[in-house]
């Protein structure tokens, strides 16, 4: 992998044009040459936190193939820097680039806990599972300092409200005490994202995420505490991690995972340009092969917005992946059923006071 000239600790290697911005910006070669001659950095590789105070925090998810009804994201932008992340495009709505800005300019929703409590205590709200991290990871690095996700979980526990979690950070281990209490009433399910078993692949695809060792350890620890945990192998990228399906499912089954899901990579919006630039710098020897295979999965395009096919793709490669997961589930995860979360316990709070059973 040709990573010598890449920006260390980041996924994206450039800031692409924001589609809503009337003005464009580019880093010219003469500026880069000047910085090199003067010993200066052309790009400031620092993370900046931006406080925000939105009016609402819970998003209704209308997409029929996403698998969740409501999501809550305490942070916008994500320092993990996963190069393939579909959430990058959402940063454009805040006036930033989906490239480096997405990883370096993190918006913090300071009133997230208050907004959640107000929403679920409303008379019209009927308990539905709310998923933390439907867009950006609720356990990204800054959470260790701010603890907003922990406070959100405490609120879900207080009102006995069902919650789902999607993350790729071992920081979730910090909150096992709360998760155990939620799990005792069948109020929580964790989905841990593990894209590869190889640390080098993880490091280049997801530069600021928890190591593979720590993620596998997290699956095991949650399972031993009777906290329901499943794994998402997302995304499957041809010629990068597509050969790892069987060994990965075997490994997570031995760690106690209940189930496994997957998506196939699709490079929607600006992500196509960001990913193409990245792979030609990071993996020049296989860049064309990977890009062509992604196009073959999605009808000749890097992007696919069609409901029903966009997550799983189509064609021979997609069929092979689907069959491998069927075989892997049957061989390694047979009989491990996931129960639906409990939506009944929250009813006792609808009149503002605890009812007697």
From TrEMBL:
Report which superkingdom the organism of origin falls in. Bacteria
PROSITE patterns for the chain: RADICAL_SAM
Which Gene3D superfamilies does this entry report, sorted A to Z?
3.80.30.30
Name the UniProt key words of this record, in alphabetical order.
Answer: Iron, Iron-sulfur, Metal-binding
The cross-references to InterPro entries, in alphabetical order and at most eight, read: Elp3/MiaA/NifB-like_rSAM, MJ0683-like, rSAM, rSAM_sf
Domain (Radical SAM core) spans: 64-301
**UniProt KW Ribosomal protein keyword:** no
Q: What is this protein called?
A: PA0069 family radical SAM protein
* Source organism of the structure: Autumnicola tepida
């Amino acid at each position: 992998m040709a990573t010598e000239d890449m920006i260390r600790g980041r996924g994206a290697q450039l800031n692409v044009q924001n589609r809503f911005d009337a003005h464009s910006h580019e880093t010219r070669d003469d500026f880069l040459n000047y910085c090199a001659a003067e010993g200066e950095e052309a790009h400031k590789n620092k993370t900046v936190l931006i406080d925000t105070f939105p009016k609402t925090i819970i998003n209704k998810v209308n997409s029929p193939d996403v698998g969740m009804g409501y999501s809550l994201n305490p942070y916008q932008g994500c320092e993990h820097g996963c190069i393939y992340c579909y959430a990058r495009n959402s940063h454009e709505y805040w006036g930033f680039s989906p490239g480096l800005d997405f990883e370096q300019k993190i918006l913090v929703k300071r009133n997230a806990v208050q907004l959640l409590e107000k929403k679920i205590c409303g008379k019209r709200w009927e308990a539905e599972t709310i998923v933390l991290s439907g867009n950006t990871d609720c356990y990204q690095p800054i959470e260790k300092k701010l603890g907003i996700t922990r406070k959100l979980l405490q609120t879900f526990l207080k009102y006995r409200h069902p919650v789902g979690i999607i993350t790729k950070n071992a920081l979730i281990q910090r909150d096992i005490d709360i998760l155990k209490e939620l799990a005792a009433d069948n109020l929580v399910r964790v989905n841990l994202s593990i894209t590869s078993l190889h640390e080098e692949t993880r490091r280049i695809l997801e530069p600021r995420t928890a190591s593979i060792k720590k993620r596998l350890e997290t699956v095991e620890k949650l399972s031993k505490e009777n906290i329901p945990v499943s794994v998402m192998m997302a995304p499957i990228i041809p010629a990068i991690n597509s050969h790892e399906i069987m060994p990965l499912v075997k490994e997570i089954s031995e760690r106690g995972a209940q189930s496994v899901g997957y998506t196939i990579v699709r490079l929607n919006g600006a992500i196509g340009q960001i990913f193409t630039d990245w792979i030609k710098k990071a993996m020049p020897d296989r860049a064309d092969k990977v890009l062509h295979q992604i196009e073959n999965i999605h009808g000749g395009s890097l992007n696919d917005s069609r409901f029903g096919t966009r997550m799983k793709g189509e064609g021979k490669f997609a069929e092979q992946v689907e069959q491998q997961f069927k075989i892997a589930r049957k061989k390694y995860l047979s009989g491990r059923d996931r129960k639906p979360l409990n939506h009944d316990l929250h009813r006792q709070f609808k009149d503002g006071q605890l009812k007697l059973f």
